[in-house]
Amino acid sequence: MSFSGKILDWYHKNKRVLPWRKTTDPYKIWLSEIILQQTRVAQGTPYYLRFVETFPTVGDLANAKEEQVLKLWQGLGYYSRARNLHAAAKMVMGEYKGKFPDNYKKLLTLKGVGDYTASAISSICFNEPHAVVDGNVYRVLSRYYGIDIPINSTEGIKYFKSLAQKVMDPENIRDYNQAIMEFGAMQCSPKKPLCLLCPLNESCVALEKGLVDQLPVKLKKTKVSSRYFNYLIPIYKDAKNNKFTILQQRKGKGIWQNLWEFPLIESKASLELNDVIAGSNAVFDGAVVKDIHIYNDMDIVHKLSHQHLHTKFWIVDIEADLSNKIPVEKVTEFPVPVLIADFIKAFKF
């Protein structure tokens, strides 16, 4: 039996029952693929279901406010993908008159859609013979064929795409693409792959040569930088003892664009209380600060792909009324980074 035949045979016996496998609607397949680029199936499934429930059609998504889209995406990270998702939905409604593109080339014109996503949608929905290459596929192919070309190099990307095209089953491309990704996720997993029970074990080069733990090869990551965030959480009580605070929207390029956060002092190193007191006057534009105290003595280190955010939260009691204040019970309605969401969940306003 051929490589693709064994993969398909394994898939038909072991595939998981997943909500997006019950449809060939390109809108829903697209949603699932964009979400699953961010997270594992178990974590991504609730997001997929919420998106489909909230936005049953691409038109519903296109007509939504960006803030609503970002709120639903909250917790997945890489928020630019949520903005691209929203922009692509608008393109479908505008440039394609509400009909989702039905081939690989047209799919590539959508914001945020690259080779992998276009290949997945065109093969699953329209039976086009385009092989998918994601992290799971890289791992299966590099191990089975014993290839040590870095998968995140220009050469590696081209090589593995060409190889994937050669070994795919074009007659059963819809199932085959899903099969090889499933195989990589469940059988040929990153750690502790099930080699003894693998249908490919008799001809797997990595297994034969003891290279399973060494493949695939990746070039070293970009150097990680450190940033120091000091969030000031203002608390103002009115005459009726109602509590208010402030959230601000991040603008411009960089992390968390258009998400909301508490007033921020970014510094070159961790700040002490006196430093925060000195900086609070500018942050609150002269409002009378009654007291400031630290919420977490040790920095919370929030790790992003290329930077680590060393974060402290400072509770600020304000005497004077705040402009742009919001009731504290409303803070959960805003789309915020996970770092802020975790604080809101833990802090008792």
From TrEMBL:
Residues covered by the HhH-GPD domain: 35-186
Main enzyme class: hydrolase
Signal peptide: none
Record key words, sorted: 4Fe-4S, DNA damage, DNA repair, Glycosidase, Hydrolase, Iron, Iron-sulfur, Metal-binding
Cofactor info, note text: Binds 1 [4Fe-4S] cluster.
Family assignment from sequence similarity: Belongs to the Nth/MutY family.
Protein name as catalogued: Adenine DNA glycosylase
Organism for this UniProt entry: Maribacter dokdonensis
